[in-house]
Structures are given as C-alpha cells and as structure tokens.
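agent> Task received from the user: take the single chain below, predict its 3D structure, and emit structure tokens. No templates, no multimer pairing.
agent> Plan: (1) validate residues, (2) run structure prediction, (3) serialize to tokens, (4) report one or two observations.
agent> Step 1 OK, no nonstandard residues flagged.
tool_call: predict_structure(input=
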Amino acid sequence: MKYILLAYIEKGKFEGMTEDEQHAMFDECFEYDDHLRTNGHFAAEAALQPPETALTLYWKNGKVATTDGPFAETREQLGGFFVLEARDMNHAVQLMAQHPALKYGSIFEIRPAADLTEMVKASEQRRRRNTAATPDRELGKKPMKRKKMHSILLGASMLVAALSAPWPAAAQDAKQPYATMARVEEYLMDRNAEIALARSAAPDAVSRDATFLILDRHGYETAVEGKNGWVCMVERGWMATFDSPEFWNPKVRGANCLNPPAARSMLPLAYKRTELLLAGHSKIEVMAAIKVALDKKELPALEPGTVCYMMSKLSYLSDNDGHNGPHLMFYEPVKDDAAWGANISNSPVVSVNYWYLSAQAYPQLESFPAIRVFAVVVHKWSDGTPAPSM
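)
tool_result: status=success, residues=390
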C-alpha cells in the first residue's frame, strides 16, 4: 500500500545550520533514502522550492484568482513529499521513525494514498449518460464497446482495464477487491486442465506442436516440450500492467500462445515477474529487480515480429462485462500508437503501454524500455466458431 509523506521543517531552521551541518544532514538523509529505495519501500520523492516561490490559485467572485505565497502561513513549512510503499500504517511509521531527518527537526505527516477507482468509474458512467449521440450512432454504425475493449487488452501481458481506467489507483486498500495477493492455491490449476486451456489459445494447427507451460508454487515450468517454437501458457492477473486493478485477481486465466520471437523475448519477462511475486516480493521490489536485469542485459530486448494468440473461448480475462474476446497481440518498441490507427472510433485495433496504464502510479516505470502492445480483434474462436460481435 502507498503512503504519502509530507515533510515539514521549521522556517529558518535550515538556513540557521552551518555548511558542515547541512552537508551532514543531506548525507545521512540520502543514505537512508537509498536504503528504503533498495528495499522497495521508496516509490517517489520531490523537494519544494522555498514558500516565497509559491503561487496559490483559487476561485473568487466567479473567476480564478491568485496570491503570492503558500496557502497557509505557518511556522513549519512544507518542504517536500515522499511516496512510501508499506504494508500498513504501523509499517510506514516503523520505516520513517528511523529517518535521520527527524533528528534535524523535520516533521513527517503520513497519509494513506486515496483510491479514486470507484469515483472515476462513477464519473465515466455519468459522462456517458450525458453525452449526446456520437457521429457513429448518427451514421448507423455500432462503435466498439469500451467494456469489451477493456477485456481484450490482456494479451501476453494481461493488460486489464487499459481503456476504461483513465486514472488507475496507485494505492491498495480495503475498498479494492484485489488489494493484495490471494493464497497461492487460488492461482493454481489442475495440470491437465491448464494444458487444455493453454492449447485452446490458438488454432490447432499452431498449438498442437507447441511447448506447454504450467504454473506451480514457484513459477512456470515446462509440462510438454514442443517442436515448432511456439509456447502456450495460461497467464494470471499479475501479468497485467503493474497498476491494473485486477493485478491480484485469482479468477483471471488468460490462455495465450506466443510465436518464437515472442517466446524468446517476452517470456523471460513473464518468468522473472512471476517468480519474484510468488517468492513474496512487493511490486516495487519486482520493478527494481527487472530494471537491474534489463540494465545488465540479463533480459533480452524485444524482437521484431512478436505475436501472441488469445483466441480461447474458455479464458477469463476480467471481472467486467464481456470478460473475454478473441484477439491477436503484437508488441512494438514504440510509445505512440498513431501508426497503427489504434484506439480510434470503429478501429479493430486497441493498444496500451506494456508496463503501466498511467505513469503517475509508478513513475519509475517511465525509464523502462518502450513496449507497446497492440490488440487486433478477430471474429472467431480458436476452434473456428463465431465469436460475439465486439
């Protein structure tokens, strides 16, 4: 769970220190910040310029007005903030009680980060109800439903809620149905059932000679060795973007088959993420470990021509209405989706960043290699039967 820490210091306290005292304070504080960061507890920070540089913006007499300076004049001035990853409030207090800034006069106000997920959903529903008929409706066309788009954006990275969650929740609390990891047993499947589900991700001509993976308590293992270079598996919710609200949803079962380039360059990311999470590491720790592995070239770069089939009628991709839909996934090392014509009215292509829905949730992911996932809707399941219109 994320906690926001507001750091206050008495006005003039810093200026009253000698240069040596200032250097000692900085060195001790930054050293402890590094300790928090290394252990996956330090999500973000920012220092503020002095209060006299502030501008306060507000509404007055029917228009926007401004005044120079901070909102409140107090003896203790806000000097910056931290975003801390902790199990609960007691854990947050334990972590910050050891921070050297306290002995130099800083005061930390600790607040749990708020979850705006339900508020955003309610606002979206109101806006949809209040929106007049679109050009698509005027022309007699049926635009693709966003709930269905929501479900198909899972792909090999299980990208749940990509288009219907414009402000994903960074915090996890009791209001979220999947705030924490469930018991490992809830994510496991019968071996034969898992292989059968994985096989149904692609037409038989593709999957019959593929390698099949199954999940155990420690990660994915090979159950059947194939001979065509394709790899089929059933992904769980944690292969979604890191800020997906269904990251820990134990019901998610996303059957997919990856072609050889995808198996070589995308599967290692899935392996590492899964093994670390099942070992009990936090999301922050997993991100840090993946970043280190990427920087050291221990994880491969994205290969050209990576494709993933997700055409199983038996998959469960999301709790939202229309929780499944057949589609193909393509991975590109780009940040923009314009070249694909994705995410526009009546386009069969939707796309999302592989790592996150919003960089505001986990800013450290912005430094990760660009990977964009494009989902192309198809109209048949892997067995050739027609799929519902999307």
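agent> Step 4: summary for the user.
Residues 132-174 have pLDDT under 50 and may be disordered.
agent> Done.
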